[in-house]
Amino acid sequence: MFRGKGNCTACHIGPTLTDESLHNTGVAWRDSRLTGRGAFKTPTLREVARTAPYMHDGSLATLEDVIGFYDGGGRPNPNLDREIRPLRLTDAEKRALEAFLQSLSGTVSF
Ligand code: HEC
Questions:
Q1: How sure is the predictor about 36, in pLDDT bands with cuts at 50, 70 and 90?
Q2: Fewer Cβ atoms within 10 Å of its own Cβ: the N or the C terminal residue of the chain?
Q3: Which atom of ligand 1 is nearest to the CA of 24?
């Protein structure tokens, strides 16, 4: 779900799950204008279940909210990244995606 239908790896890729690049997902689109630069660096998703609230402005409270945001195609605006589009995930697919995000936390033991 993360790599396929969700298309999350278009930006969240590699060991730290970030391409280290700037993207406009529409989080900064408010009242028909972009606040600030509009584009933000893709954050790592390591330990993401422990770092709520989400996005640069903390506008999304839970991982469920984040998945809902992406499922709806972000917040459409003139500079929306072309990798952000409505996903039309089923409830089961949303739960699978959230379970994957939950699994990115924890300690590594050798
Ligand atoms: C076009 C690139 C792009 C795609 C595709 C993308 N993301 Fe993101 N993601 C970002 C950027 C950029 C941010 C930070 C936005 C901000 O801070 O306003 C972000 C933020 C997040 C956050 C919040 C992290 C935090 O610590 O605040 C989560 C969780 C997340 N993305 C999960 C996903 C999932 C799950 C998918 C697939 C359904 C996905 N992303 C697809 C670029 C992308």
A1: confident
A2: C
A3: 12
Distances (CA, A) of 101 to 50, 73, 84: 10, 19, 18
How many angstroms does the Cα of residue 109 sit away from the middle of ligand 1?
28
From the CB of 55, is ligand 1 less than 6 Å away? Answer: yes
Mean pLDDT score of the chain: 95
Question: Which residue, by CA, sits nearest to atom 16 of ligand 1?
Answer: 55
Q: In whole angstroms, how large is the CA radius of gyration of the chain?
A: 14
- pLDDT tens track for 50-70: 999 999 999 999 999 999 999
- State if residue 24 touches ligand 1 by the CB under 6 angstroms criterion: no
Domain ranges of the chain: 8-102
- The whole-number pLDDT of residue 34 equals 86
May I ask the CATH architecture of the domain 8-102?
Answer: Orthogonal Bundle (1.10)
